[in-house]
Design brief:
Layout (H helix, E strand, L loop, with lengths): L8 H7 L1 H10 L2 H18 L7 H5 L6 H10 L4 H8 E3 L5 E3 L21 H5 L7 H4 L1 H8 L3 H12 L1
């Protein structure tokens, strides 16, 4: 990780939550959406997810029906067995992993099912799409544990 903007980022993210919320709620959506691809790319140039994996260690994506079908097939398991072995229903009625960290996360922070991972994983941290503006509480939460989200929000605040 870069030492500049990312120095002490978790503390700064906690301190900047109100500022981020105001930015996301009041932003010119079209202007922000135009900036996201470049900001997302810059974030990934500075931050290596494999050094962090906080998302996989602390949270679970939703496993939607297409994800379950695809992953079970990849693992050569019946869908029911896959669900029984790896998933549980959360309070929202969504399937999520039944352990933390994710059972598919290796000690090297690589994902054992990366090629067929859930769509939530493939899209995370949503810093290149409108979810960052449409789901403000999710974006704010993500900024507290994902340095990519923090980086993108800090850059948006500067502009």
């Amino acid at each position: 990780m870069s030492k500049d903007i990312l120095h002490n980022w978790q503390k700064k993210s906690a301190e900047h939550q109100k500022q981020y919320k105001n930015l996301l709620l009041k932003a010119d959506k079209n202007k922000v959406l135009k900036q996201l691809p470049d900001l997302n790319e810059a974030a990934y140039e500075k931050i290596d997810c494999l050094t962090c994996a906080a998302c996989c260690k602390n949270y679970s994506p939703r496993f939607k029906t297409p994800d379950i079908k695809r992953i079970a097939k990849h693992l050569d398991l019946k869908e029911g067995i896959f669900i029984e072995k790896f998933l549980r229903l959360d309070e929202d009625g969504d399937y999520v992993v039944n352990t933390k960290p994710c059972p598919f996360l290796g000690n090297d922070n690589y994902c054992a099912i990366y090629e067929v991972r859930p769509s939530d994983c493939a899209r995370f941290p949503y810093t290149d799409e409108d979810v960052i503006l449409k789901r403000v509480p999710l974006t704010l939460k993500n900024s507290t544990f994902c340095p990519i989200v923090y980086f993108v929000l800090e850059e948006l605040v500067k502009k």
